[in-house]
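Q&A log
Question type: sequence-to-structure
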Amino acid sequence: MNWLNSEAFTVLDQKIIWSDMIGNIFGLAALTLGWRRSVWTWPVQFLAGLILFGAFFGHLAGSAGKQVVVMLVAVYGWWQWQRRKGEATDGQIAVRFATWRERAAMIAAAAVGTVAVALLFEAFPTLSWDPWPDAYIFVGTIVAMYAQARGMVEFWFAWLLVDLVGVPLNFANGYAFSGFVYVIYGALVLWGLRDWWVRSRSTTVLEGAHA
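Response status: OK
Response body:
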């Protein structure tokens, strides 16, 4: 799997690594499928994590471990969406805004998780080259994936917050392709946010009509 960590090509003096490129292409596909509320978003996210795990395993234990967590959450998301297929009139899952309690729980989990993971990275420097931003992105990604699995519109807001740190961090660490991809993520997130927001209002209206 060493070829995954080799250079694919160079753009504007930035080296593009195969694993960085392939993993993030799958990530973009997964986000697009998530926007469309297709259950196939989860297998694609799992595959993206598997590719990046193969690239990191053996020399970047922390990064490899993070991909294992991402793959586990993808399995959880697949299970959730399989159970909820057909809730919406188009046969896909229905989406909604989180309750205030759910929002508070996710914010608390993100804050505590970021601090805990960052302290772990600081205690074991080989796990991460930039502990606090890396922890923020990792925990934020997990929270976003959880919200997506539950069909919450807040999923998109979580991704936007991850993007704010992910773009400059990836460019700074030489992962140019990831940086470019995070910019595209931002555009997809805004479109997806609008779509889920409108659908959540429609769902609420329908539920109110049936009450």
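Response note: The radius of gyration is 18 Å.
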